[in-house]
Amino acid sequence: MDYSQSFAISAAGMSVERLRVDVAALNLANANTVQGVGGVTYQPLRVVAAAGNPATAGAAASGFGVMFDQGLEALNVAESQPLAHVVASNVPSRMVYEPSHPLADTRGYVSYSPVDVATEMVSMMSATRAYEANVSAMNTTRTLALRALDIGGNA
């Protein structure tokens, strides 16, 4: 049995979850930033993960059925790893009334980034838990491989 596929699957999941944690941390760091040069505010980022390779992204509905019919042995783990993209969300700025702020507009409103701190914290906690689950799966696979070697060595 080839354990490298199990390790590759767990490693791919850990890389996606690490990216989710990094993006949530970046969003939280910019939660209370005001508009930048040219009146542009920070836009929160999101991680979009998709299964499979870019060539078969359109056939995602039939992809799992084909892989299931072929079995795990025919599965090419390198092609089936998730693809993660970071995209900016189009959310309008959060306007706060602060007439004494140096960047306030003529009506006294300051444009803050539209980052929702609660959503970002939940996203970070969810990604951390998923990362821990992938680490646990990798450790279990390692333990199974070592036990198989012990059984084979004693025979």
Layout of helices and strands:
Elements lengths: L3 H26 L15 E6 L9 H11 L6 H4 L2 E6 L5 E4 L11 E4 L4 H38 L1
Antiparallel strand pairs: 1-2, 3-4
Helix pairs in contact: 1-4
Summary?
The chain has helices spanning 4-29, 60-70, 77-80, 117-154; strands at residues 45-50, 83-88, 94-97, 109-112.
Q: What would your notes on this structure say?
A:
The model has no long low-confidence stretch (mean pLDDT 83). Helix content is 51%, strand content 13%. It has a two-stranded antiparallel ribbon. 10% of the residues are buried. The protein has 155 residues and is α+β, with helices and mostly antiparallel strands.
Offer a few descriptive terms.
155 residues; alpha+beta; two-stranded antiparallel ribbon; elongated
Q: Report the principal-axis shape.
A: elongated
Helix content: 40-55%
| Head-to-tail CA distance between termini | 17 Å
Structural class: alpha+beta
